[in-house]
């Protein structure tokens, strides 16, 4: 049996629930869950609470109460079978009398694995891999990058003009885009555990790099602010050093070393907001997983480019990306993309035409 229409609708809702808590759950995955009663009616929903809090399934079960009996749990990640800071979700589903469990992504870790097997052993019907790619490219993506590659996922965000300039010839870049796009950047920051710039951006723009709401107030939860400053050029007066959020000044020799440092601090999703120098360093290292471009309908004709030299000379070797989303933000356009390969410019060139991944 494949998933029913009600289950697919519940899975779409579960993905939304996961996205709503992205940025608050690291190092744990941002999971969403919906409980359907035996007749297919939604009777409970949940999403991963901050570390130490309840898992998505347990919250959905609590909302559903007795109506979970004979019903279906729809979850973006396979229910865990281990007792961490909270009890195993597979046991909670069995105890509530759930008859069927529909899962997008099978649990990839040994530690938490075995949930599906445990459920099947007591007669629960389990469907794995339902709309798996959508869940993997959504709220679970960063956590999965951590499991598979032992590093945080990197989202490179850049605001540019139609001719691909991020700053004018005089270095000014405030503001390339309008207020709607800038508000979207604050929402994007809120989904990340750390925001990274290079010393070039910190010195030129002196950004504060905090998450602010529509009224300009600091959000209660702030990502770690990171400045890559190997030569110690950042002045003590820099706004990024104020007490609005924690800040790390790193002298890591390269992007991978920085990501290792951040991973050890439980960071799973990084927003790269640096200038063209740092963007090129991350792209050359194959360490960009998602790209968010805010394109302003303006022309400058001169000024800093979106990205510095990538060592590419022929069009056939272009670093190729796949468009995953297109949204109008006021007068600007947001384009979301993913490099078609993770493995760096050279390998992308070698495997010209390859798709998928992500
Ligand atoms: N429109 C936009 O979205 C946007 C966003 C950001 C910046 N900008 C503009 O971009 C310009 C600044 O560009 P930028 O390229 O100088 O900024 P950047 O990429 O943020 O900073 C570059 C600096 O980062 C440091 N760095 C540390 N680790 C590095 C590594 N592994 N590889 C390369 N560099 C590393 C280097 O200084 P050390 O060697 O001292 O460490 C380097 O000079 C400004 O005009 C700013 O307004 C625009």
In short:
With 358 residues, the protein is an alpha/beta fold.
Structural write-up:
With 358 residues, this protein is α/β, with parallel strands linked by helices. The chain has helices at residues 5-20, 56-64, 89-95, 115-121, 132-136, 141-149, 179-190, 199-205, 255-263, 276-284, 345-350; strands at 32-36, 42-47, 72-77, 100-105, 125-127, 153-161, 194-198, 224-228, 247-250, 269-272, 290-296, 321-329, 332-339. The strands form two sheets. It has an eight-stranded mixed β-sheet. The chain has a five-stranded mixed β-sheet with strand order 2-1-3-4-5, with helices on both faces. α3 runs parallel beside α4 (115-121).
Count every beta strand, where a strand is a DSSP E run of 2 or more residues: 13
Structural class, from secondary structure content?
A: alpha/beta
The helix/strand series, from N terminus to C terminus, equals HEEHEHEHEHHEHEHEEHEHEEEH
Strand order of the largest sheet: 9-8-7-10-6-11-13-12
Query: Which stretches are poorly predicted, pLDDT < 50 over at least 5 residues?
Result: 342-358
Strand content: 15-25%
CATH architecture of the largest domain: 3-Layer(aba) Sandwich
Rg (CA only): 22 Å
Average pLDDT figure: 93
Instruction: List the total number of helices.
Output: 11
**Hetero ligands:** NADP nicotinamide-adenine-dinucleotide phosphate
Distance between the termini: 28 Å
Q: How would you sum up the global shape?
A: elongated
Largest sheet: 8 strands, mixed
CATH level-4 homologous superfamily of the largest domain: Dihydrofolate Reductase, subunit A
CATH class of the largest domain: Alpha Beta
What is the helix content?
A: 25-40%
Whole-number count of domains: 2
CATH third-level topology of the largest domain: Dihydrofolate Reductase, subunit A
């Amino acid at each position: 049996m494949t998933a029913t229409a009600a289950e697919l609708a519940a899975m779409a809702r579960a993905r939304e629930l996961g996205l709503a808590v992205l940025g608050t759950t690291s190092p744990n995955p941002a999971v969403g869950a919906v409980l359907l009663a035996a007749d297919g009616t939604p009777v409970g929903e949940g999403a991963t609470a901050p570390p130490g809090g309840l898992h998505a399934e347990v919250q959905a079960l609590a909302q559903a109460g007795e109506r979970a009996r004979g019903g279906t749990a729809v979850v973006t990640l396979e229910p865990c079978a281990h007792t961490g800071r909270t009890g195993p979700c597979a046991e909670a589903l069995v105890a509530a009398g759930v008859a069927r469990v529909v899962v997008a992504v099978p649990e990839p870790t040994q530690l938490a694995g075995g949930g599906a097997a445990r459920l099947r052993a007591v007669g629960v019907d389990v469907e794995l891999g339902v709309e798996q790619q959508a869940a993997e490219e959504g709220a679970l993506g960063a956590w999965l990058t951590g499991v598979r590659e032992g590093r945080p996922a990197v989202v490179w965000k850049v605001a540019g003009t139609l001719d691909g300039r991020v700053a004018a010839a005089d270095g000014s870049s405030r503001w390339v885009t309008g207020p709607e796009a800038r508000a979207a950047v604050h929402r994007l920051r809120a989904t990340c555990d750390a925001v990274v710039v290079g010393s070039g951006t910190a010195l030129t723009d002196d950004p504060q790099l905090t998450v602010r709401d529509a009224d300009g107030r600091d959000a209660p939860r702030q990502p770690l602010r990171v400045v890559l400053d190997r030569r110690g050029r950042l002045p003590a007066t820099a706004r990024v050093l104020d007490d609005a959020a924690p800040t790390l000044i790193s002298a890591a020799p390269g992007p991978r070393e920085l990501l290792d440092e951040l991973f050890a601090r439980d960071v799973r999703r990084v927003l790269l907001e640096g200038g063209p120098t740092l963007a090129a360093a991350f792209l050359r290292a194959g360490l960009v997983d998602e790209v968010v471009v805010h394109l302003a309908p303006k022309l400058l004709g001169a000024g800093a480019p979106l990205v510095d030299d990538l060592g590419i000379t022929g069009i056939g070797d272009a670093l190729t990306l796949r468009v995953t989303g297109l949204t109008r933000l006021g007068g600007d356009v947001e384009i979301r993309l993913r490099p078609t390969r993770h493995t760096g410019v050279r390998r992308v060139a070698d495997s010209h035409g390859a798709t998928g991944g992500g």
